[in-house]
Specification:
With 319 residues, this protein is α/β, with parallel strands linked by helices. It is built from 13 helices and eight strands.
Length: 319
């Protein structure tokens, strides 16, 4: 049970945004009564975990942390050479590390990767969907979908769905989302961002809002196979992606940005912790979080259902 004083401080940090999303918030929460313990050494020995977007930033941190807990980590990257460099940085001998090339925004590429992973015959304990991008202009995937929606939603959903036969009965699926989703409504009437002036940051946040709002549908679909699915908000972390996409934001917040390891903490913890936490929700700093504050950008069940229908159709999920 969460200590009432701890819960009050924790919520206040969240509402302050800067207090909750920076390294200061994480440091404060770690000192509060009731902070969940770290997973023990060797918690993931004998398991296999897939990490997408594993060539830098939060993905690279996830690879290192999961490997340190004993997992065999499968790095999914667009640039295989970069992925192999990350793997060698974790362990020069490449013990318990395998690199796979895939563009997660290309659904044909996703199907190919799923086939190769299934053929490899590994039993997967976890999938961490970290691959992300914030394009400055509207671009489309190979299948003609808006790029952020294809990369952050359609690709991860399709890959997980195809890999269900390989997931263990204690499997955990993590969608790495963003606090930016709190600023946007669910784009149920324009999922492909065809209306209005395109803004990369807005597209990014809309796709992240979509990730969070379809969690219930994903848990219902994948839970039937014994899988728990979560979205994790890493806070504001210092990564190459932030520096490249939001340079002004990075310069202003640099003194308080989290490290990539701090940003990846909850994703790794959810994969490793026992007992497994209940799926279907948004997490930040090892605690479930609301998907809207003060009613802003709250979503109706009908809109969530409509959005899920679009995602399932666009991703080509089997019925």
């Amino acid at each position: 049970m969460t200590h009432p004083v701890s819960a009050a401080i924790d919520s206040a940090l969240d509402l302050s945004v800067v207090g909750g999303y920076t390294r200061l918030g994480l440091a404060a929460r770690r000192r509060l009564p009731g902070w969940p313990p770290d997973s023990p050494a060797g918690a993931l020995v004998g398991t296999h975990v897939v990490v997408t977007g594993a060539s830098s930033g939060l993905g690279e941190a996830c690879v290192q942390m999961l490997h340190d807990l004993g997992a065999h980590v499968h790095l999914v990257v667009r640039d295989e050479a970069k992925g192999e460099d990350v793997a060698r940085g974790v362990d020069a001998g490449l013990a318990r590390l395998t690199t796979w090339r895939c563009d997660l925004s290309d659904l044909d590429d996703v199907r190919d990767l799923a086939g190769r992973l299934l053929e490899a015959g590994v039993a997967l304990r976890g999938l961490v969907h970290n691959a992300g991008a914030l394009p400055p202009e509207r671009t489309e995937s190979e299948q003609g979908h808006e790029q952020t929606m294809a990369l952050h939603v359609l690709g991860p959903v399709l890959l997980t769905d195809l890999l269900l036969p390989a997931l263990t009965d204690d499997a955990r699926v993590v969608l790495v989302t963003s606090g930016g989703m709190y600023t946007q409504d669910l784009p149920v009437d324009d999922p492909e961002y065809l209306r209005g002036e395109y803004a990369g940051a807005t597209a990014y946040a809309r796709s992240k809002r979509t990730q969070v709002e379809i969690l219930g549908a994903l848990q219902e679909r994948w839970g039937a196979h014994g899988v728990a699915v979560y979205a994790t908000h890493p806070g504001w972390a210092s990564t190459p992606g932030i520096t490249a996409s939001l340079p002004r934001f990075e310069r202003v917040t640099r003194p308080v940005l989290r490290s990539a390891q701090e940003g990846a903490d909850t994703s790794v913890w959810l994969v490793a912790t026992r007992p497994r936490r209940v799926g279907g929700g948004l997490w930040h700093d090892r605690r479930p979080r609301p998907t809207a504050y003060l009613g802003r950008h709250a979503t109706t069940p009908a809109d969530r259902a409509r959005m899920w229908d679009w995602v399932a159709g666009a991703a080509g999920l089997a019925q």
